[in-house]
Design a protein that fits this description.
Blueprint: H1 11-25, H2 39-52, H3 70-83, H4 91-103, H5 106-117, E1 123-126, E2 142-146, E3 149-160, E4 167-173, E5 184-190, E6 196-201, E7 210-221, E8 225-226, H6 232-247, H7 251-267, H8 273-301, H9 311-331, E9 341-344, E10 347-350, H10 352-361, H11 368-379
Parallel strand pairs: 1-4
Antiparallel strand pairs: 2-3, 3-7, 4-5, 5-8, 6-7, 9-10
Helix pairs in contact: 1-3, 3-7, 3-8, 4-5, 4-6, 6-9, 7-8, 7-9, 8-9, 9-10, 9-11
Length: 384
């Protein structure tokens, strides 16, 4: 384990250390990928990051993380983006780990946290169902107690990279007679368990980032329940808060801003005062997003429970990302709707990949309309 106290370094010295590591170790062929990479493609790099002790920059040091202060965490993310570092399968790092740190048992933490950090366990999420997306509490996947196990039957959908995962965390209904939020439990399951079937979903870009996951009499040990029986909604809300921090990371917007800047330089648009003004406004929005992100990350690191106001982070992040993607298509002109690389004097531009990725960002993790409802009723206290 790397025992360096990264927070004792000057931020610029820390940034330089991170930059050197990425420049010397990150595979050139994987820089700025145009799609979400599969585990087989990103595995070697992720293991190298794990060996460096840098896989969980925001986790507390005592659980194997870097324990970065907010300004160091932002510098780390910015250097990842500057170098075009691809996003690895990170549900374990961004969601399961923080959840178990706060809500898991000692046994669950001792078993799973080291395996997440060593990449032995790769996690996926079992939340959404065919008729339960934004209204997640209406889920129908059922778990019935049977001796030392739960028997799970049902279906999950839009599960990111389930075909590469070793484990899944999922919400199940354990009391059909209770109010819909009160009869839900939170389980952890091994994807190799008999009865689990994964079917990839091909998206508009031709990629298979998402999957359907089917459960047919799947046995999950009682020891794999997180929190109390029928109190999984409380756990789910905590995890949704972590997800909104994850989705609220400035990384995607920083990436899109870099793509806009590259395209504008190729097309000579910085000589246009109107474009430069629009670009500058968006660059300031990305900087503001980074500041807002550090505020919520700092709350988590202090062990505080996130409130409903974290929804504004998800809205601001995904809509900033979308505005940047829209601008990228716009400045490409008549070629903006063409898939693949668009040739320009001095280089080429890929426009639609960013656009494709930005559109669903406002929907997954709870649509932005739902986030605004949460802010209206739970933060502004407006009538429902």
């Amino acid at each position: 384990m790397n025992t360096t106290d990264w927070n004792s370094l000057d931020t610029e010295d820390f940034r330089a250390t991170v930059r050197r590591f990425f420049e010397h170790n990150y595979p050139e062929a994987l820089r700025y990928p145009k799609r979400r990479l599969r585990w087989a493609e990103i595995r070697d790099w992720t293991l190298k990051l794990s060996a460096q002790g840098w896989l969980a920059p925001s986790w507390p040091v005592r659980y194997g993380g870097m324990g970065l202060a907010p300004e160091k965490l932002i510098a780390f993310i910015e250097e990842q983006e500057r170098h075009g570092v691809a996003r690895a399968p990170d549900m374990g790092i961004s969601m399961v780990g923080p959840l178990l740190i706060q809500h898991g048992s000692d046994e669950q933490r001792a078993h799973y946290l080291p395996r997440i950090l060593s990449c032995e366990d790769i996690w996926c999420q079992g939340y959404s169902e065919p008729n339960s997306g934004s209204d997640l509490a209406s889920l129908r996947t059922e778990a019935v107690e049977d001796g030392d196990d739960f028997i799970v039957n049902g279906q999950k959908t839009w599960t990111t990279l389930a075909q590469d995962a070793t484990h899944i965390f999922l919400l199940v209904r354990t009391d059909k007679a209770a109010k819909k939020q009160e009869g839900i439990s939170f389980l952890l399951a091994d994807m190799k368990t008999p009865g689990i079937t994964v079917r990839p979903i091909r998206n508009i870009a031709g990629n298979e980032d998402f999957c359907e996951v089917f459960f047919d009499n799947v046995r999950v040990p009682r020891s794999q329940r997180v929190g109390e029986l029928n109190k999984g909604w409380t756990i789910a809300k905590a995890l949704l808060s972590f997800e909104r921090i994850f989705l609220g990371s400035p990384k995607q917007s920083q990436y899109a801003l870099a793509r806009v800047r590259e395209a504008a330089e190729l097309l000579g648009l910085f000589d246009d005062a109107v474009f430069t003004d629009r670009y500058t406004q968006l660059a300031l929005d990305v900087a503001d997003l980074g500041t807002l992100y550090t505020r919520f990350v700092d709350q988590v690191k202090r062990g505080e429970t996130l409130g409903p106001d974290v929804s504004m982070l998800k809205v601001f992040a995904t809509e900033t990302y979308s505005r940047l993607a829209n601008l990228l298509v716009e400045i490409a002109g008549a070629s903006g709707g063409m898939p693949g690389d668009i040739e320009a004097e001095g280089g080429s531009i890929d426009v639609l990949t960013t656009f494709y990725n930005a559109r669903p960002a406002t929907i997954y993790g709870g649509s932005n309309e739902i986030q605004r409802n949460i802010l209206a009723t739970s933060v502004l206290l407006l009538p429902a």
